[in-house]
Amino acid sequence: MNKLLEGKNALVFGVANERSIAWGVTKALHEHGANIGLSYAGEILKKRVVPLAESIGSTFVEECDVTKDEDIAKVAEKAKAAFGEIDILVHAIAFANREELSGPYYDTSRAGFHLAMDISVFSFTALAKAFQPMLRPGASLMTMTYYGSQKAVPSYNVMGVAKAALEASVRYMARDFGPQKIRVNAISAGPIRTLAAAGVSGFKGLYGRFAEVAPLRENVTIDDVGNAALFLASDLSARITGEVLYVDSGFNIIGIAEDSAESKGEAATA
Ligand code: NAD
Fold it and tell me: Whole-angstrom Cα distance, residue 35 to residue 21?
């Protein structure tokens, strides 16, 4: 196999378990030869993340709560010591309190708004700043977003507002980092059953209907996101920055949802 990331160093933030999008990304980067370091949120996740890291031969597994500047500084320092330079930084982190992810958006509390913005938006900016001194020219930074940034989606609420801010920060950072030949992009994934998704009230309904409505009539997997991340991490996407790449079976291009049974019938009789 022609490996796309041989000799590149990647740091992935956001593996909680084997269902995490960050794990799909990690597998794809690993298969293509990247040296990988993993960072996870806190002690409780350690017992899940360490065996996953071992399964890909990764020895860099560091805790980092992105709400803490000192944690970010520490993980950056350790990464510098372990890898020297970084080529790929993956941010697959988001959080909002469960009570903010149901009912009307206007019920969002001030503290809940701040927390969602801090963990889901600012952390990407803070990580980019902390790692900036060790990013190699040609490096690729990426984050994970969702269509709820563009359209009002039931229960997604403050997270939709956070994703809109995250996508805007991708554009600002792409501008900042561009002259250093460092790229910044986002992947907008269709709904996937993960720990984070379980916190969104009514996610099951959203997930089930998705495959009926999306043009490709298929749900998205963490491996689909991993493959798109591989493209964004590799030199194949060398002139792409500031973009949001949809990995959503085409869901976002649909104006009006059709009944899939009806449209299948049409296709069969056409
Ligand atoms: P996940 O629960 O597996 O991952 C979320 C990660 O965020 C976890 O590893 C969690 O530990 C981490 N995190 C939360 N607070 C943190 C903190 N203070 N410090 C460090 N890490 C923290 O769920 P996922 O669905 O894989 O989510 C990854 C990303 O993908 C998120 O940004 C999410 O919004 C995005 N996304 C998910 C979907 C979906 O349907 N699952 C769709 C589009 C985008």
Answer: 18
The CATH architecture one would assign to domain 9-250 is 3-Layer(aba) Sandwich (3.40)
| CA dihedral angle for residue 24, residue 26, residue 30, residue 31, rounded to 10 degrees | 10
For this structure, is 246 an active site residue? no
Which ligand 1 atom sits nearest the alpha carbon of residue 16? 9
Q: Reply yes or no on whether the pLDDT at 269 is more than 50.
A: no
**What are the residue boundaries of the structural domains of the chain, listed by start?**
9-250
From ligand 1's centre to the CA of 119, what distance in Å? 10
Model pTM? Answer: 0.96
Whose tokens are 């360490």? That residue is: 50
Dihedral sign for Cα 133, 179, 10, 95, please.
positive
Residue (of 210, 111, 197) closest to 156 by Cα position? 197
Strands 86-91 and 60-63: unpaired
203 pLDDT tier (thresholds 50, 70, 90): confident
Active site residue 147: no
Range list of H helices, 63-182: 69-83, 110-117, 123-131, 157-177
